[in-house]
Design brief:
The chain folds into 2 domains: 141 residues, Immunoglobulin-like (Sandwich), CATH 2.60.40.10; 117 residues, Immunoglobulin-like, CATH 2.60.40.10. 23% of the residues lie in helices and 31% in strands. The chain is elongated. It has a 4-stranded antiparallel sheet. The protein has a 4-stranded mixed sheet with strand order 18-13-22-20, with no helix packed on it. It has a 4-stranded antiparallel sheet with strand order 17-14-19-21. It has 6 helices and 22 strands. It is α+β, with helices and mostly antiparallel strands and 367 residues long.
């Protein structure tokens, strides 16, 4: 009997201990769950054919909200910590938070704090691992911007993620891109030559201007046009304009332009030549750019030769001064030259007076 009672007591104690452990490990209603210090954000890049882009849809951080689309590799994302700029706007409501996100997602927003740069690989995934959940005393906010895309793909809108997004340590988002519609382009070939003898000239540099007065730049292999204030010859490098340079055979070319009229503007002349101030107008025909397209000659004239400085000021070019110059010393300044002339003149006058006096003396003796 005592043995049975002893076994019952031991079982009761063990059961109580087990219940205590279970109750201690179970979350209590209202008790805060310990949040992770970092999160992983995976960007799944999807490519859609032109005209098939689905409408915008909310990402829940887990599932793909879009039907279709192919994984796209080779897209480079740069993540920026924009927490301070976001919370400085003090958004309180859902609409205010959305407005703050749109402001930071704008193309002209200047992001100053890059965190990491990742390129999509495998199944079109760029993994940003261990991003801090909090930053500067707030839940972190990150801007994801495409800084490089493959050729033929349109750059997507910027993505702003305000944490937390769910309770998972991993967040999966599905940004999408649209393939660019094929555009037929063309180009033009040129040859830089001496205006007098046709000799091929190397080292000349040019920029391209469209009919709107804008100059050609290229970013991520895409043409862009910009207005340049001030002198183009002093700003073309600072503005990072597309610069064409003539080769040793004088040849250079431009391609990838849509059909229309353009101007070739010289910004630097070959050594020893005068820069042409007259833009060369040319027309691009879509689909035409090859060795069969005739090259346009672009001419330069030589800089005028400067005569050597002998230090002798020029004398008057007519009359007796021209004949006297052969007998005058070829050194000194203008003052010395004219003093020499004056001295010679005085000497001639003195000799003349002396000769006259002598003649008069002989005449008197003869009488």
């Amino acid at each position: 009997m005592r043995s049975t009672l002893h076994r019952i007591c031991i079982a009761a104690v063990a059961l109580a201990a087990l219940l205590t452990c279970l109750l201690a490990s179970a979350p209590v209603r209202g008790q805060a769950v310990v949040e992770p210090a970092t999160v992983d954000i995976a960007l799944h890049k999807l490519l859609f054919a032109p005209g098939t882009m689905p409408d915008a849809a909310a990402n829940d951080g887990q599932t793909n909200p879009f039907a279709g689309g192919e994984p796209l590799n080779g897209v480079t994302f740069t993540a920026y910590d924009v927490t301070t700029d976001f919370w400085t706007q003090n958004p309180q409501t859902k609409d205010q938070m959305a407005a703050a996100q749109e402001q930071i997602a704008a193309p002209d927003y200047v992001a100053a704090s890059p965190v990491a740069t990742v390129t999509t690989t495998g199944q079109g995934v760029a993994m940003f691992a261990r991003l801090p959940l909090r930053s500067h005393g707030h839940y972190a906010v990150y801007l994801f911007r495409e800084t490089r895309v493959p050729r033929g793909v349109r750059v997507a809108q910027n993505l702003v993620v305000a944490l937390p997004l769910g309770t998972s340590r991993r967040i999966d988002l599905y940004p999408k891109n649209e393939g660019a519609k094929p555009v037929t382009t063309g180009g033009q070939r040129f040859v830089k030559v001496d205006a007098r003898n046709g000799r091929k000239l190397a080292g000349a540099q040019f920029v391209i201007r469209n009919q709107a007065g804008e100059y050609l730049t290229r970013q991520q292999q895409h043409n862009q046009w910009k207005v340049v204030s001030g002198g183009i010859t002093s700003r073309y490098q600072q503005e990072k304009l597309v610069t064409l340079t003539s080769n040793v055979d004088g040849s250079f070319s431009v391609d990838g332009l849509t059909g229309g009229k353009y101007a070739l503007v010289e910004v630097r002349a070959p050594a020893g030549y005068v820069r042409s101030r007259h833009p060369v107008t040319f027309t691009v025909v879509p689909g035409k750019f090859s060795s069969a397209v005739p090259a346009m000659n672009v001419v330069n004239v030589r800089q005028p030769e400067t005569p050597p400085d002998t230090g002798v000021p020029p004398l008057p070019g007519t009359g007796i001064f021209t004949r006297l110059r052969r007998f005058l010393p070829q050194t000194g300044a203008a003052r010395a030259t004219w003093l020499t002339i004056l001295g010679i003149g005085l000497l001639v006058i003195i000799i003349g007076i002396w000769h006259r006096k002598r003649s008069e003396t002989h005449n008197d003796e003869g009488e």
